[in-house]
User: Fold these one by one.
Assistant:
Number 1:
Amino acid sequence: MVMTELQIDVESQPSRPRGVNNDVGAVAALEGDAELMLRVRAGDQRCFGLLLEKHRAPVIHFLWRMVQNQAVAEELTQEVFLRVYRSRSNYEPTAKFTTWLFRIATHLGLNWIRDGRNEKLHDRLDQQTSGGATRQLPDHARTMEQELLYQARLREVRQAIEGLPSKQRAAVMMHKYEEMEYVQIANVLGCSESAVKSLLFRAYESLRARLAHMA
Amino acid sequence: MECPLNSGLGDEITVGYVARTLDAQTCAAFERHMSTCARCSDLSAAQQSVWELLDAWPAPPVSSNFDEKLYRSGAIHARITA
């Protein structure tokens, strides 16, 4: 996939004079992601590191909630950032950077789900990550009974999300956790704003029904 | 405010209210409306419950070797320290 296939002509950011700035931290603070990506295009690889630092966790978490397996989510996220890096020479700031980033992530996540590779791969709640960190550790402030109840509730939430059609799932993840506006979700998914609202409202209706007993 | 459920805006107003993305005027009007409309009040409460359950779904920490694996892949030539 090349950059030109991914970009959407919305929220254009003006191109600015390019050049390597030694104070990349200041660049990151003062200028946007598109500017950093333009600097990556110009050969400043440290700016890629800044983009990675800023967006690594949101992309992994988005994909983790999509595929519900951390190893897979991290593998897909590696591919997302590789595609960003490989596309650097063609980069033009014609869309918000995160729209492009999440479009790649969503494409990979939806393909993975579509191909049925998610069978029996879901993480257990107490499973260890590939990097050794333990996920969702029991909270020792809770009693055993409270912990069991908490884990049961989490399982129900995850199952309710898993029960959504994959595109609805993606829309909810972007709306709820990335706090994206309808128009940005539409640009990520390549559909109209009204189609996004329809997807989202059906998804939330399903979730209200499936989780009503937990209210 | 006309009942959003009758004007076809029930989901949009309710989801926006819970997500706190409504403008202040619409938010206030909806709150006044809910004080007299059980259907909208119930729908809002159900959406709020879903919102809170999703809030309580934590994401795992990123693996400590994530960047190392990315840079080791070969496509990115140099190790970059942000």
Number 2:
Amino acid sequence: MKIQKKTFTAEIFTGSMADISFLLIIYFMVTMAFSANRGMDFALPEENQKVTEIKQEDAVDILVQPGGVIQVDGKPMPLEGLLPYVKSKLLQNPEKPVILRTDPNATYGNMITVFDELRQAPEKVGIEIKTISIPTRREIENIWSMLGVA
Amino acid sequence: MAFMRGRARRVEAQIFTASMADIVFLLIIFFILTYKVEVDKTKMELPKTVLREKIPEKAAVISVSPTWAEPPLVVRVSTGEEMALPVTTDEEIVTFASNVVAQDPAKAFIVKADREVPYERVDTVLDALKQAKVKVIYLLSEQKTVDD
């Protein structure tokens, strides 16, 4: 009697591949973050660039106060009036810098709102502000001490 | 013509799963390509702006935790390649930023702070970055919409 030989076909077991793949998908989905990757940029003066001291009276001075209230050149002003005012000043002198100071008790959001408004000058009033300076409190104090203001 | 009575052919119900692996691998490839490790996971409400510039990859991050976070107003720093770590003094921010700038003078820095954080805290961070001669700073923000 002839005995039939049992034949085995070579195969790779792929049944668990889907499980592994799903595990990987879940890992990537859980750890993935569609993080915010956009923001407002501002370049600081280069080391070798000539840094000129800007006097408060030679510039448009904006002070952001708590609650988002702004004072421009010492006068209170609504946010909507800021760009037309800056435009009128820049038409006289296009190089005129804008100093953006913020009260330490105002919020970061208050300052960003005004900074965003200033950056929108080309679109809103058709004029480019060449220099927007955001001095820190230490820099302001240094300038005051240099000018002899207590 | 007489029908031959044969046994009915039984067809087993089945779901075709052979293409599932292809779909799954496609999804994996998508996730691998778009995968980004968030170096700072501090939850906060970012300020909203109309103008938003794209931030370069692997920029260093300095975050200020919100006033409602526990602990509040903590500054965390990251080179953009590892997880953010808290710093305790303002001098540490200057030291950190100076080291990063020494390795890569063109490195961009992201300032990530909650919109309700007192400006005084952000001012300290900006001052530290200026002292460290950082060239470009990005103030992280969300898109402002007509509803805001």
Number 3:
Amino acid sequence: MSTDRATTGSSTTQSALRIVWVYPDLLSTYGDRGNMLILARRADLRGFPVETIEVRSDEPVPTKADIYLLGGGEDGPQALAAQRLNTDRGLHKAVDQRAVVLCVCAGYQLLGASFSAKGAKHAGLDLLDITSDRGRTRAVGELVGDIDPELGLPTLTGFENHDAKPFARVTAGVGNDGATEGAWQGSVIGTYSHGPALSRNPALADLLIAWATGQDKLDPIDDTWPNRLRAERLGAVRVTVPRAARAPVAASR
Amino acid sequence: MSTKRPLRAKLATSVSLGAAALSRATGRGDGSVIGGRLGLMIDPNLLANLATGRQIALVSGTNGKTTTTRLTAAAMGVLGDVATNSLGANMPTGHTSALARAGSTEYAVLEVDEHYLPEVLTSTQPKVVALLNLSRDQLDRAKEVAMIADLWRRTLAQHPVHVVANADDPMITWAAAGATGAGAGVTWVAAGQRWHDDSWVCPDCGSHIERAVASNGAAVSNMPVAPEPESAPAPPADPPETPTGVQVVDEVTVVASGDGTLDGATELITAVPAPANGGHPSATMARSHADRPAGSVDERTLLMPTVPVPEAAHPAGRPLGSAGSHPATPVLAPIATPQTVADTIPGLPAVSALPAVPTDPTATTADGADWRCTGCALRRPTPQWRVEGDAVIDPTGRAHTIQLQLPGRVNRANAATALAVAAEFGVDPALAAPRLAQVVSIAGRYAQVQRDGRDVRLLLAKNPAGWLEAFDMAEDVPTLLSINSRDPDGLDTSWLFDVDFSPLQGRRVLITGERAYDLAVRLDINDIPFTHVNSFGKALRSVPAGRVEVIANYTAFQDIRAELDRVN
């Protein structure tokens, strides 16, 4: 049997931290499963019972869960996901109730007001005050950014591969526009750091868990390997934007 | 044959051969690329010229290309000498080198990179093309899976080539069904598909693809099947009807017996959403990773209404001609709409006339997990070739025991594909099968090397699907994993989270390579203890004498192979 589970709770445990992976059938391209596994594991290590829920795109999105995850996807599935989520409205209801959302890449774009896929503009979920459009060139490579200081998180590191209010200002890579990266609005965080973004950003994972559980501070856990990975990846990237030239950090909304 | 080639082609060929020899002599390479590159500069049509007059088979797909090419060349050896790009140089330069070096062999088997298949089809005009599988691989630079499938489908519509295709891969099935025109056709092989996460969505209509798999991972069945009508297929516009009396709550129905085989004691099982802690977890639709944490609310538990299975109404196999191929009918341009797919895809029975499953022998093997699109008529075609234990079953039902030196179920499937391709050239599988046993390792893949008292076996795994296959092959011994992220590997290691490493649970696991820390974080999340070592040598010294498995991605594999004197 798999040991790749951090689940200790059952579906009947009221206090279980419920993590929903939205539409893995449509939005799962770059190890997007990782964010779910990482959150479940890190919550489990803190003694929180965890329930993970994979919601396929022909199923209703539960409205009462604690954390929602949306991953990357190709144009066609991305457009289909937006259409189905707008019809379903479950994610909208959850966000209204201050559920925590981490969306990456295509999942991030479709939470905006509009996005571009297959050469056409599509209505997004309008849960983030962003719009996205095709870039002139595809952004592929390591991404580094200073996260909005209000969130109190260390430098963002990730890998981006994509063609939008910022979550971080970019010091290497492209992000939204070469200056800003991702978006933060209420309890919703979007990033172009694709796939298992949390593998290199354990503090961000803990922030999401803290938000979802209402804890101010989580017990420390052994982060030897994530920290070594962070150091290695940050060391492998040459900072591309001079500090003085960086765009101002956007305010949270 | 070669005397008919234009003068420019002759010149280009000799320059190509000279450059290749120079490359080898100076130790700069194996000559499999540079020779072809120079030759093509002199004569841009060199590949086409070298291909003229030969009978050629191409092999493409995400995984298993090199191995299947080697096996196919071995099978075709029944006919005489066979030219092949056995060193894995799978772009036109490599093909050019291979054919230039081969002289005037009548036959050639060429491995082709997925992206180059259209170009190489055009220049070499092959008799047969084998399509193995499609899954995510190097997404930071490669085309997405659905795009490749679409490219292939459109390409095959324009070539009178016979296709040997994996019936277990929906993307391959859809692409292969594009083969049209005079002389075109498809032979379906039950080659298996362990990795499902790139084919949950129908490439034709965007609906979901359903699969039937038991909770123990064994394929159990086909989909819900209406009793087979006596008459000809009805118009295929509607989804299959629910068998009377069966409660289909989740649109998921599987047919299975308790041991995962289909025999006289089959029961029709209907999937319903799991009541809390209720039901029998005997079979679930395989909809996601094996490492889905327990307690997922979408985990299906199956109730077992005792609904009689329709009597074996399956016609005892489809007509199995010489190579069991089907005539292909024109399908493409425009791509078939959902309503027309069943009409037009060769080998795909119309949905309303699904063969009754229980007697389909192909459904009893792990390779035979049935699948179908829930929104259109795309579904698993009935394969003519399949694997059963150590035997390949040919379209006439004859079993050919394969004494394969290569490990894993996937290589027995590759052997089946090789025999199916060779059969298109008139090779009797009974004569070809013994030759497959002579293939021991391919450019280091599966090589076994003695070093410092350790018996090391090398397994190459480049992407999530490949890792799943490697875990199937690996024995329960100390295991070294190595990951790099250089250009040939893809720069992005995100896919490590697509792989469930839990098969390694309980083994001594060592990790190394330039991206070992990514692996470390992944294994940590997977709760698998490991030791990080800085080199292959250290890894060997830190395990006791005896068997060691090495699983590595491309350049990491080449690094280790170099330390083992470039073992082949």
Number 4:
Amino acid sequence: MSEQLTDRKGAWVFIEHRDGRITDVSLELIGRARELADRLGYEVVGLLCGHGVDDLATEVIRRGADRVLLADHPELAHYRTLPYARVAIAEARRRRPEIFLVGGSPNGRDFAPRVASALRCGLTADCTDLQVGNYHVKRDNTTYENLLLQIRPAFGGNLVATIVNPHTRPQMATVREGVMRMPEADATRTGVVERVIPEFEPGDFALEVISHEARHSTVKLKDAAVVVAGGAGITDPKEFELLRDLANLLGGEVGASRAAVDAGFIEKDHQVGQTGTTVRPRLYIAAGISGAIQHRAGMDQSSKIIAINTDPGAPMFQIAHYRIVGKAGDVVPMIIKALRERSADQGAAEGAAR
Amino acid sequence: MTDSRPIDCVVLVKQVPDTHNVTGEAMTSNGTMNRSALPAIFNPEDLNALEMALQVRERHGGTVTVVTMGPPKAADILRESLWRGADRVVLLTDRKFAGADTLATSFALQKAIEKLGRYDLVLAGRQAIDGDTAQVGPQTAEKLGIPQITYAESILEIADGRITAERALDHGSEVVRCRMPCLLTVVGSANTPRPPSARRRMALKLAATSAEIPALRERWPELGTEDALAAHLQSRDLLIPVWTADDIGLAAESIGLAGSPTQVHKVNFVVLESTESKTVEPTPEAIAAMVAELVHEYIVG
């Protein structure tokens, strides 16, 4: 049943799952691990803890893994730090992976430091890119080849740092959701599902989950093609309604800066930025958002940015493609009107053609 | 409801540059950041952790001890902790700590917490705004050999040596029960931290580390010689203890840069891009022209 340990070096991915589905960030990481492993000649290994999750193991292989380490146990049915970490620490000690990637979700960020601390290895938080490269240390004239380059914003997003772990293994990183491409499932891919037996200790069950409540967010900001976002320049709830109208008209979602969330105009799951969602829409309309770096970090990859602000010096104008100096409450209705007139013209034109 | 036994809390705090309020002055002309223009503040979520500990003390009795690791100037947030209600504070400072990554930091915090003695709860903010890593809490818990409750939003009950708490997660919430001692990392939505009390601020305005005594004397020359001032602070319990790496018995290989497996390969400043951009007048005609252009480029419609 169980395969032999492989001699191939491993790029591991922690497979987080919820309600019988693998989380998006875990799938995105399988995709990037595949690219890194192909370059380095490693195998991609998914570490999957759970109970009754054989179908997820198949999914991990279809998305690009060579091997799944499957720890199936009733005590692993729901995520808990200590039992999950126990499995990861034991398997990492036994198999010595080169790379270990974990999604930057709350539970991923609960799990990864616990594991890294036990393995005494380096861990970089919340990476936005991962590459492979060499690292030269002048002091001892040594070059470390093919290290994992862990790229992350630092200092509130004002810097981008590249971090390496030359001396410790695995090279661990947590990665932000939505920054890497999700691989397609390929039903023809094959791989090995290897069952591992957890060796728990009594202390691992110090914590029990009494209840959990899913809050199914209806906000689909992350994948929205158009985001219409409001900030501190919106002073009236009615103006936020205008943003909703515009978003609906464009088939988009409503976003917000932290200021608008703090002001109580909109729920937190609409927040764009470093502490909110990272978006990459085709069009981002920033209405009354000054453009603090924390906000820009979550939207500066948008294809087109329209900035509306009364302050001509607002930082958002520096990354905007269209700069409109004016009150959001005045400008947004003009955009709505222009769009409605266009669609009315189009309707009339189509009617005439028929 | 309440446990008969008092609960002793240790709160881990950090002084950070105020990256959330980057103003125009903090940006240089080429769009990079001027770090020295940023004020040093009490890490916001650490204030939530302190508030949670103070509420535990109000309900169950016990003590609140605040620990920070940082440069000598970090004594500022320890004084603030005293003014907000902490019973005791400790500053971990040593040049040898410099360059510590999260792993090396967690070793130092572990040793300091163990030196403090008995505790029931360790609380820390979920993450610090300068690094946003959220790693030091779990790494410290692992080294202390205690369980962790990260993303804690509220404590529902403490009874029979166990704590019941609610975790706030992206996809919902979770109620967990855990035996103590354990470590909590606290999210910003947990509470509204109380302000420093005016009465405590007056009573504890002289609280200082021994390194701060010369500066204190300059401000209040009437306090006498430095020795007299030190004796005064000591007798009033106003001397903030300072622990070095040696004081907490930290091995050289676990400290600072040497104890940090992660190394910074390079750092790039984020330069604001000057993209191809247009200024659009806030008039219906100009807006309609912009919309037409977006439609033409298949951005909308």
